[in-house]
Design brief:
The protein has about 500 residues and is mainly alpha-helical. About 70% of the residues lie in helices and about 0% in strands. It has one domain: MFS general substrate transporter like domains (Growth Hormone, Chain: A, Up-down Bundle). The chain has 23 helices and two strands. The chain has a two-stranded antiparallel ribbon with strand order 1-2. It is globular, with a radius of gyration of 23 Å. The two termini are about 25 Å apart. InterPro entries: MFS_dom, MFS_sugar_transport-like, MFS_trans_sf, Sugar_transporter_CS. GO terms for molecular function: transmembrane transporter activity. It is a multi-pass membrane protein.
Length: about 500
């Protein structure tokens, strides 16, 4: 089942016919470890900040909804509206992958992810300055929608650049280990966004936070982006790409070579439907939807929900590196498919557990009033068991570490240097952006629909968890396709 190819990448047959290039003067197996860590640090810091910028909107969706769509709307409608705007950023990620992937394969990796960093940061800061719907009407959600589209385009170019850059510096036999540090950045960005939000909220009253305090996490991004840009400017171009460019072996038509060549196109499709599609839904279900579910359905306070999710993610984070390193020894496919299978099988039971340990709901009257000046009664979870909820959430994040830890090395090893940025980025961002990014919106919409069904019907009785049918089905389909078609290779040479 496992096939080890020590001297050629699995996509070699996709490369242009002709005489073999001269032996490479650069050997990435000889790169000093200190240099690799410098590359990982610079790449990771910027990527964490980009994920932070991208995620703070989703983390604040319940609060931003009334800001963008008016305080007179129903809470579930404004939440769906905010999630739809949030999801728009995911839709354009594949287009960002195509656009910036082409630049990265033609001009260079370093230049490209400097550009994406600035676009992401600028859009985030401006989001924190947007007036509310009550002030400027429909212009508020439209402006934020445009900013989310810019963020999605930028993120579409960021991940492929960072993963490719680190992989092209890493020794062949430790590529899974070193690239797994890039895989940590998405979770680290989410943790950072939640921590900044919680600290900001704790520093002021609830009313102030909902009025203007939610803008602070967006505005803080300016300082983070400046620091990250300064760090990344000091990096040199990837040695493998620099050598290919010096020898005139870079692609002038990376899109054509990635998607018109039938062999390379088949690899892109296998990467999408056999790996990244399922990885995307597992990632966003176990972290984003779980976070939203705890607040909107289980009625946990934002602080309690944040404690549960952040604690689970911090405890699970070392496992990204563990499974990345393990994939260097036993192969990528086995670990990714195991995580996919476990997610498809156990996600629903784990969410049932979260619901059970959150405790019954009770009506309380907090010190807030509505527009008419009346006290607002809301539901809150009664005596939630936070340690048990953290343990269950840890299990959900465990599946993420299995499917996500080795996947950068797997994708890098599929494609040749001259089209690697483009070929890697497109399936990754379709899988994560389209299939994964819409998990919160689609699952919430299904739950709202099920709740509106006739009393006593199957859907109405299971409304709170009905939305999980979407990510579980996608993960199961991806597991079937990946098990049948993915090749389990490791430690291959990626030098052209």
């Amino acid at each position: 089942m496992h096939s080890q190819l020590p001297h050629r990448a699995p996509a070699t047959e996709a490369r242009a016919a002709g005489p073999a290039p001269a032996p490479a003067a650069h050997d990435n197996n000889a790169v000093p470890v200190g240099k690799i860590w410098q590359v990982i640090t610079a790449s990771s810091v910027g990527t964490v900040i980009e994920w932070y910028d991208f995620y703070i909107f989703g983390s604040l969706a319940a609060i931003i909804g009334p800001v963008l769509f008016g305080t007179a709307g129903k809470p579930e409608d404004t939440l769906l509206g905010a999630l739809a705007v949030f999801g728009a950023g995911f839709v354009v990620r594949p287009f960002g992958a195509v656009f910036f992937g082409r630049i990265g394969d033609m001009i260079g990796r370093k230049y490209t992810f400097l550009l994406t960093l600035l676009i992401m940061g600028g859009a985030t800061v401006v989001t924190g300055l947007i007036p509310s719907y009550d002030s400027i009407g429909v212009a508020a959600p439209l402006i934020v929608l445009v900013l989310r589209l810019l963020q999605g385009l930028a993120l579409g170019g960021e991940y492929g650049g960072a993963a490719t850059y680190v992989a092209e510096y890493s020794p062949d036999k430790r590529r899974g280990y070193f690239t797994s540090y890039i895989q940590i950045t998405a979770t680290a960005g989410l943790v950072l966004s939640i921590l900044v939000i919680v600290l900001t909220k704790k520093s002021m009253s609830d009313a102030a936070f909902k009025d203007w305090g939610w803008r602070v996490p967006f505005l803080l991004s300016a300082a983070l982006i400046v620091a990250s840009y300064y760090i990344r400017r000091k990096l040199h171009e990837s040695p493998l790409f620099a050598k290919a460019k010096a020898e005139g072996r870079t692609s002038q038509h990376p899109l054509r070579e990635s998607f018109m060549n039938p062999v390379n196109r088949r690899l892109v499709l296998i990467a999408l439907f056999g790996a990244t599609m399922g990885q995307g839904v597992v990632f966003y279900t176990s972290q984003f939807y779980a976070y939203s579910f705890m607040q909107s359905t289980l009625k946990l306070d934002l602080i309690d929900a944040s404690i549960v999710l952040v604690a689970a993610m911090v405890l699970a984070t070392p496992l990204f590196v563990y499974f990345g390193a393990l994939s260097d020894r036993i192969g990528r496919k086995r670990i990714i498919m195991t995580g996919m299978f476990c997610a498809a099988l156990f996600t629903v039971p784990l969410f049932y557990g979260l619901q059970a340990y959150a405790g019954p709901l009770t009506e309380v009257t907090p010190a807030t009033v509505d527009a008419a000046g009346k006290a607002v009664a809301v539901q809150k979870a009664l005596t939630p068991n936070l340690p048990m909820m953290t343990a269950l959430t840890f299990c959900l994040v465990l599946f993420v570490t299995m499917v996500y830890g080795p996947i950068a090395a797997y994708l890098v090893e599929l494609f040749p240097t001259k089209v690697r940025y483009t070929s890697l980025s497109v399936p990754y961002h379709i899988g994560n952006g389209v299939f994964g990014g819409f998990v919160p919106l689609v699952a919430t919409w299904i739950a709202v629909w099920a709740k509106a069904q006739p009393e006593g019907s199957f859907w109405q009785q299971h409304a709170s968890l009905s939305g999980l049918i979407y990510p579980v089905l996608i993960a199961a389909v991806c597991w079937v396709i990946g098990t049948a078609l993915m090749k389990d290779v490791r430690n291959v040479r990626i030098m052209d």
